[in-house]
Amino acid sequence: MSTMVQAIRMALHVAEERHDLTDVFGEDVGPPLGGAFTATQGIKCAWNTPLDERGIVGASIGLALAGCRNVGEIQFCDYAYNTIDLLKLAGLQTWSTNGDWNVPMTILTPVGAGIRGSIYHSHSFDATATHIPGFKIAIPSTPRDAYGLLLSCIVDPNPCFFLVPKALMRVRSLPGEEIPGEPGDDRALSKMIDAPLGERAKWQPQWPETPDIFIPFGEARTVRSGRDLTVVSYGRTLPLCKKAADELSQEGIEAEVIDLRTLHPYDWPRIRDSVKRTGRALFVNEDSEISNFGEHLLRRTVEELFYELSAPPRLLAGAFVPGVGLADSLEMASVPQLPSIRDAMRQLAHHQA
Amino acid sequence: MSTSLRPVPRAPDADLSPELLLRIHDLMLKARVLEERLIAMYKQGDGYFWIGGPGEEAFNVPLGLLIHKGRGPQYDYCHFHYRNSATVLAMGADPTNAMRQMKNTATDPYSGGRNFCNHYSMFEWNVVPVTSTIEAQYAIGIGTAIAQKRAGGRGITVVTGGDAGTAEGDFASCLIWSSRPANPLPMLIIVTNNKWGISTPWTGQHGEKRISDRGKAFGIESKTIDGNDPEVAYREIAAAMEYVRTERKPFLLEALVSRLYGHSSASGANAVVDEADCLKGFEKKLEERKLLTRQQIEELRQKYAQELHEAHRKVRQEPQPKGDTIYENVFMDRDKVREGN
Lengths: 353, 341
Known about the structure:
Shape of chain B: globular
Order of helices and strands of chain A: HEEHEHEHEHEHEEHEEHEHEHH
Oligomer: heterodimer
Helix content of chain B: 40-55%
Number of strands of chain B: 7
Structural class of chain A: alpha/beta
Number of helices of chain A: 11
CATH class of the largest domain in chain A: Alpha Beta
């Protein structure tokens, strides 16, 4: 079963073979490295750029204006901050021209904490991305979703962010969530599509036959059903929410866990219907808590579902501090972890009005 | 003023034909009258903001005449800035549309009343959306040039900006990406140097003697020219374009120009008197060469002033966009650029 990084690679391969993906580019994405996280190994249209994020985003917009479907990678989202005005421009090409142009481009970038990445390799980007209208935004939590969401981003006529939770890049699919066509044996897949260590100039990947899967934007996934509270999350914290919910089941608390998967557009009907049933809502993500996307969801919950609620809805997010510190204790204290998620769920479930 | 590194195709020595000179003058004059009309619109309350290019016509008209206009990578991609009104006019744009954008009418074909004046967007002619940021076009142009390099043919990417914008990192990005030995790009990188950055003069912003000198470090063919002389501009743009079209490599062209109504309406949009006026200089030459008389010039100016005034009156009657249209075209539901129409 594939890891998320292998799933991304397979999606890029399918896109360059069948969906006119012309360019995958960024720092170290081409040979010999094939990406800092190996996500672009074996991709024929992958090439290396100067270490220049503004050049990467600019080139992505320009290629898209010339009709070239492309994926530009920012090696860590921490380094996308000096490209904000170019990202704004990408998001407004269609709107500012009243429909004269569109830009079929995807900005792929690893996000979030979880690898002890310190101050400049642990940022989240969902709060920033959701402040840039004109983009569609995907953030997978499983390899299969990564595969299907990335393909949706690539074929979309609009600019897309594909945010990859770096803590989940090596996590494997759960049984039943495989990508059809991938070999069930991990080592067999690795032998087929992972570049060998050392000399690899003559290496050629052997791609498995995998189908087109296009996971629609705005279609969340209920990963666990429950009657007592609704937990809405995405990215790194999603599996933690699922685990916490499974544990709390031992205490008689049944949490419904929704993986939002895309942040714009997002699946409000699924959240609404679930919260209407449970009366309790917890939003979990790891971006810093002030002006957080979860705050928007919380605001909408209060405005539209106030009289359906049995308890004040909650947001559990990252601390509002300038960065995620390197020491294990600092990272653990900065972004939600299993214990803090479990505690928040338990408190919400037990809250008495 | 050349800082050329290796021999490049020389600008044609031959004099431009009288017909071409008169055509250039006609467009320069029309472009100037259009900008004056846009300024008048602003001052009459028929627009919120003016920014444009009076003083750059001697360079911008030849540029527009030499651009190979059309749709797709075989034609030139144009990454203009907001001072290229004379260029799009020379390409054949309807001046009424500039007024529509000034008046932010629903009929404005460039933005539907959403953007400032002189922020063009012309899909059919590869004129990509003009931005108010003064540098982003230098980074975005990299992408269209990559597509054109791959496509082959003679289509090139033309990027224009001002001297002040070269202080931004995107200008350096453009020099670096376009000159990589692994993949040099067919880009004509233009800087129209009016020696101002809003209110700060050149000496307050630049230590380099010539902006074109910056091309040297990258092995980019580079040149500084007198952008106030349309004959020089025509020949030099033609030569630089031919180099880029055939060699598939970048060329950095710095044109020294004037700024005749200040930065924008934010500084009053009033005529300045201490900078060279390319139109007056060219008209003097045409009179000396007996190609035009003063009376003919005045009649032509009157004709355009009248035409554009009438167009202004018409535009004034056109509807504003409705407020409930703000959510339109946030996203496109089809891939227009890939379909090519």
